[in-house]
Amino acid sequence: MRDLILALTLSLVGSQHLNFQPEFKENKAYTYDYETELVSGLPERNLARAGVKIKSKVEITGIGPKLCLARIHSLEASQYNGIWPKEPFTRLSKLSQALTAQLRSHIKFEYSNGRVANLMAPNSLSDEGLNFYRGFLNVLELTLKKSQNIYNLQEAGIGGVCNTTYVVQENRKANQVYVTKSKDLNSCDERAQILTGAAYTCQCPACQEKNKYSRATSTYYYKIKTTKEEALLVQADVQEVHQFTPFNEATGGDAVVAARQRLMLSDVQKHTPEIPSAAFEKRGSLRYHFSSELGQLPMQLFKIKNMESQIVEILQYMVDHTHEQVPGDAPAKFLQLVQLFRAANDDMYESVWKQLLNRPAYRRLILDLIPAISTTGAIRFLRHIIERQELSDLEATQAVLMGLHLSPATRDVIDEALLILKKAHPRSDMLLHRVAYLAFGSLVSKYCANLDNCPESALQPLYDLAAEASSQAKEDEMVLAMKALGNVGHPTILKRLMKFIPGYAPSASDLSLRVQISAVMALRNVGKRDPRRVQDITLEVALNHKINPEIRMLAAFVLLETKPGLPILVTLANAMLKEPSMQVASFIFTSLRALSRSSAPDLQVVASACQVAIRILSPKLDKPGYRLSKAFRLSLFQDSLMVGIAAQFLALNNVGSIFPSTALSKFRTHFVGQIAEPFEMGLRTERLQEMLAKRHIRDSDTDSAFDVRGLLKALSDWKAVPSDKPLAAGYLRMFQQEILFGELDKNSMQTIFQALYGPEDKLPSIKPLINNLQNGVGARWSKALLSAEVRRIVPTCIGLPMETSLYHASFTHVAGNVQAQITPAPSSDFRLDDLLHANIKVRSKLTVSMVKDMIFVMGTYTHLFQAGLEAHAKINLNLPVNVAVTVNVKEKNFKLEIPPCSQETDIMTLRSKTYAVTRNLEDLAATKMTPVLLPEAVPDIMRESFDSGSTSHESDKIRGRFSSEIVSTGNIYAAGQSSQPKVPSVRSMCFNASTFGVQVCAERRSMHAAFIRNAPLYYLIGEHALKLSFKPVHTGSSIEKIQVTIQAGAQAAAKMVRLVTFEGTETELTSGKEAIKKLKKILDDPQVLISSSSSSRRRSSSSSSSSSSPRRSSSSSSSNSSASTSSSQSSSESRRRAGDQIGLKKKDTSALHSSLGPSSKKPQKGHQKHELKEPHSKGHSKRKAKKLSPFGKSSSSSSSSSSSSSSSSSSSKAVRGRHGAKAHAKKPLPAHATSAEKARAFHEKNHSKAGRKQRSSSSSSSSSETTTGRPSSSSSSSSSSSASVSKARFDAKKRSKESHPVHKRDRKDERKHAKSHIASRSSYDSSADWERRLPELFRLSFKSHLNPKQASSSSSSSSSSSSSPQSSRTSSRRSSTRERSSSGSSRRASNSSSISSTRESSSSSSSFAHETMFLGEVLPPGLTIVAQAVRADNKNQGYQATAYIKSAAAKVDVQLVMVQLAETNWKACGDCAILPHKAQARFRWGKECRDYRVEARASTGQISRNPAIQVKMAWTKLPSWIRRATITAVTYVPGIALMMGFAEVNQKNPSQELILRAVATSPRTISTVIKAPGTTFYYEALPLPFTLPVGPAPALQTRDVSAWNFLPEIASLIAKEDESTCEVNEENFKTFDRVKYRCSFNKDCNLIVAQDCSAHPKFIITTRKVGSRFPVREVYINISSSYIRFRVSASSSILVAFNDERVLAHSNVYQNKRDNIQIYRNETTVVVEAPKQGLANVTFDGSTLKVTVVSWMRGRTCGVCGNNDGEKQNELLMPNRRLAHSCPAFVHSWVLVEETCSRGCKLQRRYVKLNRHPVIDGQEMTCYSVDPLLQCMKGCVSTEKVSVKVGFRCFPKDSAVSLADWHKSSNRKHAAEDLVESVDTDVDCSCTDDCRSG
To answer: What is the pTM of this model?
Structure first.
């Protein structure tokens, strides 16, 4: 029994759980030691951090059931600022006293079951102090469950209701419970935070799911001692971490703010508490309460003593210290003013304003401060000064724009803005009116951002504006209302917007196009809040064919911005397959394609859906034309940085013109999980093209059009196209808010023209402005701007705020003066065009200075102390503008003078540095800013360079350092540190322009923390500096000024400082001989001697052969010069061979380096010796022959288009071709081989033989190397002379098909070396495989146009090609005869030398006919530009450029020569020759323009009988910097080519040649191929924006050609492309949009063929048949007040009458100068031209009428010819703008009926009733036509009928109106069609005499 009782007792005791929930018993006092700490910095050690620590004691007393009293006392504050964790915390006694005074009040709170509620405190306790109490009480918040040890719940805390996880562990032996609580502070409801400055950005959910930019978590560790009576909280430790990264959190690096709390129970006592007598009021819950955090700026801390005096003092400091340059602390001072004004009241605003109202500099600063203050008081003050009219219109506009956009959206601010709207009347100032309403819409948008229903009171002013504008038909006000509502962007406004969207309201279609467009675009911001509703609306509009195509395209644009799903996109794509408007289809297709390529995370889903949609449309719309609307998008997103940027461009064309009618571009950025659209601009150019085409603005309101308008009254319901469209209209949108829009209409243009050309009495402001400029105008303007203030404040666990903010402030200042001198002085009737005949000198001394501060902070910032991480970046820009400009338009003179650089001037400096900062208000002198990265923390390996001479010493030093590191636990980066202070790495680069005494230097300093972690953020942490400066360069004498003079015309020669001359050829020859002699002595080689003597004989032979020429001296000197310079290049060629003999083989990637030419550096001598020892190595036989430049002294003309040296080239080729053509011709090619394959095979044979000859005569061929020879490519290193032979043979074989006997020894040698030729041939086989992949068109050869007259003209004008070809041939034969008598190898060597000599002789005339002709010897310059430094000793120093132009019959020569003013031989020469079928250009520079050369030639011709053009560019040696830049740029070429649609093929093209060929495959497409070194790009059927003139080539005209007279022809050609032609004959007609219809109306009534369909028509063309027995055609053309009639006579001739007077009776041309009308007869056709009235020409041959309208009539015509808008689906447009259901109905609608039949027309228009009663919806209906039909007049009988389709409107049979009532009804104009039926209509009638309309 005892055992049973014992067991029961033990089980009962075990079942009793201890009390886990801590509580505070009544009449007990619990004392805790409380310590809090908050530190900011990077997570790594040995970097600087900043923080604060507060130690205190907290006493909690139970004063009642669930009610406690708490008091914090014994506070001790300290700060941390230094290297973590080395530095100790520093005590702050003054701050401790301030905190103690602030926290001396008690608080009460309820505490039950671990829950803290209902905080009560006296009013004397500030919100900041109460928040500190909340931090302590937050530790006491515990939710313990007895039944669970691990559980999750939502728990309230200081930061909100957050997701919390508990882990409970019990230690029964010690009667203790351990609780671990963790909170995810990113997952909180009702989170306490403030986010400002990002209202105009939107979150990127996909970005934030992929990457968390800000994470915060807290962990609580509790130790609870449990007893039967109570549970005591013995200890609590809290750690909270906030981390932030602007980049990818995995790889970007992050900054951290760590908070820590520690609570230790120190004492528990029983006593009766003393409750303070102060009144306790409820102060909320545990949730953090924000109060004055926004009033304190985080980067500064100062005491406010006398606010007004401090404000005035800072204002005075900024004004006094801002003279020529802005002081560096100006942005900081501006931020101090912002903080002071935010703390000020309304009286302070008024007091400061009254003091400084009349001082402009102070006034501007105060107005700049209003937007930055962004408080209700600031907006109220702005309203007051606007009401008192103390601001100008521009000042008020600027202040309202910035103030309303930057102010917080509170109800008080909205009320103040409403009062401002009432003052902004459109009558007083239209700009302020527009800006105010747009800004108000943006303010309401911020106010309603978090509201489901936007208050009606806030939207009512915008509703009233829209209603009033609609009732009064004010288009501008309706547009403004739509744009303002669009800025609101809340779904509440949809109901009002629908009234203006076409398709949803009956009256919306009658609104102007601008209003409809504005209404559709207003849906954009609504779509971000309610995408589904906007998708439904925009999809319906986009698919409605009856709506204007431009509105449909914009609706599709809005639809795609809402990120629709796959079903909507597929529906849209399927609809486009049947879309009749190609404009709409093209725009939607390109928009889908552009969106599918987006890489932004938030667009990935819609991009994938777009890829599916475009697969549906690709077969139809893969290559739309240039005239169609398009969308382009460029998107870049970097995942490692989580940063992206996108640019979008829309080109909308609604009339099929080349130029788009609407263009829109916008930019989009992704950063820190936010999406921003910082900039968007739209431009509408509705009539701009017309203005450019007509070159003037025609007054369309003239009364001369009255007669034309009278004819239009006969048309039913005629609607004119609006003519009051603005010339251009645009808008500016920033951060998804439209801030400004405007238009340029006719009135605005006339105002501008009056301002420019009107007399003084109409514009009195122009003359005073000129007078002020002559007297001198002083300018001083400044602008301060706080452009960014993005703040995010959240509470920490200790009750202090944690802030992450970004500030951007700038201060700009412009100061100086401008003075003008005008000679002669302006008279009283001065006009601006008088300045064209005056000498104007303007002196300007201005300084543009700007300072920008960008500050990022992260830490705790209160009004008492601050501790955090701060990154400061500062940009200083100082740009002095000290110039004197003299302009004389009449004399064609321009002069610019600037002072020299006398001292170092910093133009731009950029500095950034990251600090750990601590401040406290009680001791501002103790403010400390420690760089986060100190130089001592950077390892020495980042600083030191490698020194091989001190290896052992350095290794001992390193070992010593690491051994000491093992013992020490200090700096983990201590290894390698030295005692010397470190400095940031410095890199500088200077561009020295010593000629002008200045050098431009860029210097960069950088020290970052990336050595700790390779992350983007760590690259920013540290110290960085970039400086751009001008430094003086001291020359021999001081420079007084720098002067630039430009003189054109006859006075150009007088402005030359140095006479341009070139070094003579005798000097070159002497120097060349001396070089050869020195080379012989160095080499001491008999082979060289033989080659030299052979070369000497050839030179003498060439000289004697050229003596018979009329210009012997010139030819001889040119030949000798070529030979001597060729000999001097032998050593260079030998050195190049040595590289191959050693066995150096370059990869294919080295082709680019090879293609850029040899380096300018000279090879070492050691290579020369090696070359001469082994001239016949095996590697040498495998080399491919190198190609020479096709132009210049070293190459002859290689195509028939080169006419300058065709005779000499052909003779040389004949000699060369004699030795090898038949040997290779004996190997037949397959019959199916293409021409390209035959050419390639023949090239390989010539290449093999050239290599054999070169091996047998290496020394002699190298002596014939020319000056422009190219280096070997990656797979060849043979000499250039052999390559020239090979290329010449190929050209000769290709053109002349000549064959010559070949010696047997040559064939034997060919077989002998066949094996060595395999390697060379294999590369061509590989290239051939690739070439077969090219389209056949690109493998055909190019045949240039060859004109005999042109060739002879060029040949006669060439001074260097005058040597006799026969003499050259004879000389070559003599050389060959002497060589045959020698041995085989000697003969081959001499033969090669002979060929090289012949090549030189023929190529002595370059590709330029004027190779040796310097135009400056026979012509004065047409333009002289002199840039010189004027020295004190009057020595010339600078540069001079002269241009020469020689125009002859069908040819233009242009030369540009630049020389130094000092006597040097450096020159830069540019040559250009323009002929009818070709043009060639060359640029050379260096010593006498001979060191470097780039040449280009363009010629026209044919490829496969298609017109083609070929551009060939070649180069020789290039400077090293050009080589490096080209290599870098070429890496981007394949990607760019791919984006442009080019295909790429790898081919071994010539290494130093670029060929572009374009073939006109059709009038609107070209096929292009670009052959570059190593690759070939091609594009088939590239569409063109205009039609090419691909007809037969015109005969050569001998008119003068100038370098620029083709530009007007091109402009005229493009303008003519927009001309449209309509053709009407007896049976059918073809509209302006090229749609052909087969129906006609050949009766007595006039038919409108075409007319100007604007409100004020300029022309109308009608036609009719006249006569009953033998009807003939008559045509009537009404042009303004003129009247033209064509009539076919009985003899079939055309009679022409102008204003009822017969013309063209005695002459074939008639011209009316007043109306600019010309009529002429062309054989059997009569033509009328009236381009100013819109008619390019009207032709009539008796049966066919053709009408051609000018380009600016696009979309403005109507009639049978259509509306000329490029759309084919709306051709059957009737006068009432409805589409006809059949062609006869369309033609009948354009018949002009009359009141009586006296003039022949017997028809009238009547509505008809359907002769049956159809059943619709089960009910019989009576139907009436919605359009009137032709019927015979009263008193007439129909003799002929035609069936037409017409729409009917049906009514119930019982309630239908009568036909007579339907005639009178006004609803018929907008009546919808219920069915379409075919009915008969009259087309001919028989009438009595009294027939009339009835």
So the answer is: 0.76
